[in-house]
Amino acid sequence: MTWVGFAKEQFRWTAAEDIVPSTTDTAATRSFCGKCGSTLTYEGPRWADEVHVVRANIAGEIAPALHVYVDHKASWWTIDDDLPQRGGTTGSELKD
To answer: CA-CA-CA-CA torsion for 47, 50, 53, 58, nearest 10 degrees?
Structure first.
């Protein structure tokens, strides 16, 4: 799944009546559509000032800025662009 991160102050729901939040045991909040169950957002302590939105839920073009969790990618997937890559234990450590 591809996520797009936004600063919390840049994010707002325009129609929130069907949003169902769920808090995990790691203090993260995942939001789902109350009608179809689709995953919508993720907010967690690791990126406390950000809201992550599932890319498929966003209309229009957004250019990627980096790759995270590259150490956990599928073995058959090749990253062949020049974007920064992050991985390691946290998924966000800068790779060489």
So the answer is: -150
Does 54 lie in the same domain as 67?
Answer: no
CA dist., res. 21 & res. 44, Å (int): 12
Q: Which domain holds residue 67?
A: 63-96
Domain count, the chain: 2
List the pLDDT tens digit at each of the 96 positions of the chain.
788 999 999 999 988 889 999 999 999 999 999 999 999 999 999 889 999 999 998 899 988 889 988 999 999 999 999 999 999 888 888 876
Same domain, 54 and 21: yes
The set of residues, in sequence order, having a beta carbon less than 8 Å from that of 24 and lying 6+ positions away, is 30, 44
Say if residue 9 is in the same domain as residue 51: yes
DSSP code at position 60: S
